[in-house]
């Protein structure tokens, strides 16, 4: 059961960093598998500070690096890092510096101190603890989407950069729309009639002043139709994050860069999962991935329409 829960948690994407292919993605799942296998994950060696590579998105015992379903292809980047607490390094370094300075009766130069630090880290690495983390993504060749389950742009770009190295090129760009997300979301709170059909505004938002970017108001579990919110908007604040519900199937937060945060697949979708019997964990993973990817393939084009459609320039 713990393994199954772990797989389910990794399967359902929680944060979407969205990218569009500028050219058709033509690799089959088998061809993509071959290319990723050249950079398959290997654990850190004794002197490695970190190691990263592709691993099975399903579980640690599966061999395939790509999980394909209905034309969608999921992949997973694993990164292992050695952990040496900074306080430990600093304490040991000061002791080494003091010993050398006492022996040589002189103060060490900055370069010499840096060299001692490098030596110390080299000595400690074989004994350091390590931890690993995984970043998941999937490719939708038909829809032209690359979707990364990442809460920050850096985490998404780390995966994309590594994938780009393995493929030689990766013709994608961050999703871009004709209308500004900030302008549109501000309009939604200003005029409820402007909210698209199927969208329900929920109880969380973040407002920022046009003149002072440090002036931010965060509202959580708050009725966003109250006069106090309207007053902030009338004084020039703009919506940079907004919690919404989509047709009682998805709930999420939209930010100013069109990233989707804290995505939840609601009961209507989870009921679909429950209606399909799976023989084992791998089969259940396939069911979940199929339902999730098909749901997002239906939703994402509509998501672009919220903001005037895609800007392909």
Describe the secondary-structure layout:
Blueprint: H1 2-11, E1 16-21, H2 29-37, E2 50-55, E3 67-69, E4 72-83, H3 86-104, H4 110-124, E5 129-140, E6 145-149, H5 153-167, E7 172-174, H6 181-190, E8 199-209, E9 216-220, H7 227-234, E10 237-246, E11 250-255, E12 260-265, H8 267-274, H9 281-306
Antiparallel strand pairs: 1-6, 1-7, 2-4, 3-4, 4-5, 5-6, 8-9, 8-10, 10-11, 11-12
Helix pairs in contact: 1-9, 3-4
Describe this entry's structure for a reader:
The protein has 3 domains: 2-81 and 130-174, TATA-Binding Protein (2-Layer Sandwich), CATH 3.30.310; 86-126, no CATH class; 181-306, no CATH class. The radius of gyration is 24 Å and the shape is globular. It is α+β, with helices and mostly antiparallel strands. The protein has helices at 2-11, 29-37, 86-104, 110-124, 153-167, 181-190, 227-234, 267-274, 281-306; strands at 16-21, 50-55, 67-69, 72-83, 129-140, 145-149, 172-174, 199-209, 216-220, 237-246, 250-255, 260-265. A hairpin with a 4-residue loop joins strand 11 and strand 12. It has 9 helices and 12 strands. The model is unreliable at 1-7 (pLDDT under 50). The strands form 2 sheets. Strands 1, 2, 3, 4, 5, 6 and 7 form a 7-stranded antiparallel sheet that branches. A 5-stranded antiparallel sheet has the order 9-8-10-11-12.
Q: Specify the biggest β-sheet.
A: 7 strands, antiparallel
Query: Which residues form runs of ≥5 with pLDDT under 50?
Result: 1-7
Number of strands: 12
Strand fraction: 25-35%
List keywords for this structure.
five-stranded antiparallel sheet, 3 domains, 313 residues, disordered N terminus, TATA-Binding Protein, seven-stranded antiparallel sheet, 38% helix, 27% strand, alpha+beta
């Amino acid at each position: 059961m713990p393994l199954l829960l772990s797989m389910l948690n990794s399967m359902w994407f929680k944060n979407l960093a969205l990218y569009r292919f500028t050219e058709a993605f033509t690799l089959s799942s088998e061809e993509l598998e071959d290319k990723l296998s050249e950079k398959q994950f290997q654990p850190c060696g004794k002197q490695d500070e970190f190691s990263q590579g592709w691993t099975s998105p399903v579980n640690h015992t599966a061999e395939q690096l790509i999980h394909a379903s209905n034309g969608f292809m999921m992949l997973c980047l694993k990164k292992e890092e050695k952990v040496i607490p900074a306080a430990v390094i600093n304490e040991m370094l000061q002791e080494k510096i003091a010993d050398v300075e006492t022996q040589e009766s002189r103060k060490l130069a900055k370069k010499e101190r840096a060299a001692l630090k490098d030596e110390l880290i080299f000595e400690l690495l074989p004994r350091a603890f390590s931890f690993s983390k995984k970043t998941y993504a999937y490719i939708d060749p038909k829809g032209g989407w690359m979707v990364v389950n990442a809460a920050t742009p850096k985490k998404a770009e780390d995966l994309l950069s590594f994938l780009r190295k393995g493929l030689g090129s990766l013709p994608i760009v961050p999703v871009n729309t004709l209308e500004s997300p900030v302008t549109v979301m501000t309009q939604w709170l200003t005029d409820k009639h402007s909210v698209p059909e199927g969208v329900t505004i929920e109880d969380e938002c973040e407002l920022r002043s046009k003149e002072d970017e440090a002036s931010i108001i965060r509202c959580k579990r708050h009725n966003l139709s109250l006069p106090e919110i309207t007053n902030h908007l009338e004084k020039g604040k703009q919506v940079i994050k907004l919690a919404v519900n989509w047709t009682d199937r998805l709930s999420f937060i939209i930010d100013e860069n069109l990233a989707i945060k804290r995505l939840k697949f609601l009961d209507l979708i989870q009921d679909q999962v429950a209606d399909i019997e799976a023989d084992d964990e791998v089969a259940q993973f396939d069911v979940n991935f199929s339902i999730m990817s098909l749901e997002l393939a239906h939703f994402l084009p509509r998501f672009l329409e919220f903001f005037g459609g895609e800007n392909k320039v």
